[in-house]
Amino acid sequence: MKAFVTGGTGFVGANLIRLLLQRGYQVRALVRSNSSLDNLKSLKIEIVEGDLNGTNLSQLMSGCRVLFHVAAQYSLWQADGDLLYRSNVLGTKNVLACAREAGIDRTVYTSSVAAIGVKPDGVADETYQSPAEKLVGDYKRSKYYAEQEAVKAVQQGQDLVIVNPSTPIGGFDLKPTPTGEIIVRFLQRKMPFYVDTGLNLIDVKDVAWGHLLALEKGKTGDRYILGNQNLTFERLLGKLEQITGIPAPKHTIPYWIPYSVAWLEENVLTKLGKQPTIAIDGVRMSKQKMFYDASKAVSELGLPQTDIDRALAEAVEWFRKQVVPKGIHSAISSN
Fold first, then answer.
1. Which listed residue (139, 144, 145, 224) is catalytic?
2. Is 144 a catalytic residue?
């Protein structure tokens, strides 16, 4: 079976493509003309250049039976709102329309728990939906409206399953993602304080499996949270301390400090041509504990639940080799 994959150069996509190849699929990957192909080196796949809003996507998909639409623009900068809408909402609408035109049998659409939102003082599952106006930032809202395009496609008769990954960790996180950046900063000892927040973590390999299992077992029109363990940020840093031997920060930082820095950078320094380092929306998100329940995907799909300590250790080892400057390798335990 030949699968068409968007977003294959990214973190989740690169792991998904490797799993598909292991399971005997042929893969055709859509990449932008300016994308780095480092995550796809030495893989026996077909690469085609194109854009999510391209008019020729149906021709590029010709001959493929299934589609994994993984690609999405990620940014927490408020200046990128229009870009997020064009890529994530309009891009998804176009990709799904082209899939119908190309005769794709089944589609797995990669949404995000960002589209579901955060349940106040609780743990959200697939039945929960935050009102769009309460989602923090343009990124989360773009993922919500993109997911609505997937829902509309199902209503038009398209065989499509939605998956909502939480926070993946593991190898091939080249950019890196915000969580990968946390690990890198920890290894570089650039985290003197931490914010009082929480995340749901999952091994990125399990996320890849979640996509394949959704293709094989998912109910058309349903969404499945691909997650595993809910952790406060303090516990996450404690696990990194155990894995690396590097002391974790012991003190939280008041919310107003990073928020003030972020506001100054995004609203003042950018007008002076400076590159901001802290996003206002990122700080706003940190006020919420982003906890989720993935039991539906576990029970209905058989989503794996790899031990998070093991996944974190693999992520640390990958970043040690790929991203973190050699000068600090001696400070990292070989555990």
1. 139
2. no
